[in-house]
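## Example pair
The file below holds two records. Each record gives the amino-acid sequence first, followed by its structure token line.
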Amino acid sequence: MFQIQDNPLLMIALIFAAGYPAGLLARKGGMPKVTGNILAGILLGPSFLNVFDHSIAKILEPLTVFAMGLITCVVGGHLSYRRLHNALYRILSVSFFETAFTVLLVSGGAYWYTGDPVVGLLIGPIAAATAPATVLAVVFEERGKGLLIKTLFAAVALDNVFAVVLFSLGRAQIRGMTGGEGGVGSGVLLAFRELLFAVLLGVILGFLLTRLVRFKKIEPFSGLLMAILLATGGAEAIGVSPLLTSLVLGIFLGNSERKSESWVTSLESLEPALMTCFFT
């Protein structure tokens, strides 16, 4: 008997076919398209029509990782020192204290409720992360521009950098508490090594991309798509965060030269299709 889970391409087509009109209906009702996409996904999911079961998340995981890599690259591209240097200290301060307060509050609450410090160390950094996909989808839908939008993208990027760093350190602490090999010190070194590798991979890919495009060896759009695929796939292969790697790639391109900054914004043409599939 034919099962839709056996055909990933058909699954993507059905998701887009359901999510896109649902987004348009939500828009007509005065809501963001994201709301319609999410409701369509819930309707098609195992809780209602059961067109897709829980295995869809595993089957479409590569597409999800690529979509998140593209989104974080676009967000990172807006973190340009040229445009934000006047407000950079203020944005850094707000993001740092926002993240720190959230982590302390959620970690403390989780520890108080469960009595398990491991739960607190894991949940706290996760709660501090800001969902870049939702922010990007709503901003692009409303065609938002100006200082507020630039500040918002910068804050989202920094929030996620802090969250990844804190999660890595929390995981290292858990490793030491649970008697992992090497204890806390070894775990912290491993966490910093993972962060360093993610940053280096993003910088190297950004550097190679700018050189290849400058010498007309590759088209900017095609090269950037290839770089994002290498960033997400390469990061997973070496066991580091694909989101941080893609974010660093975007930050590098946004700060290297003005033309590179425009390459990142050229990805916005892919956003409607990716956002529809991602949220549905």
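Second record, same layout:
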Amino acid sequence: MGQEEQILYRTDVMTIEEAMEYLRMTRKTLLKLSGEGKIDGAVKIGKQWRYSRRRLFEMIEGKSA
């Protein structure tokens, strides 16, 4: 992965705490919806969830999901 790709990846990928704040959801609700596949851009890596900022924004704006 090149330096530009790494920068784009780091700015697009959110932790669960960042996604909770961005979506204004509780951890419990976000984990439930993520596990049900209802959060576009949610990916489970090992035991941790990661979220695509761009895909969450598109979901909120009604462009997908």
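Notes on the second record: The mean pLDDT is 88. DSSP finds four helices and three strands in the chain.
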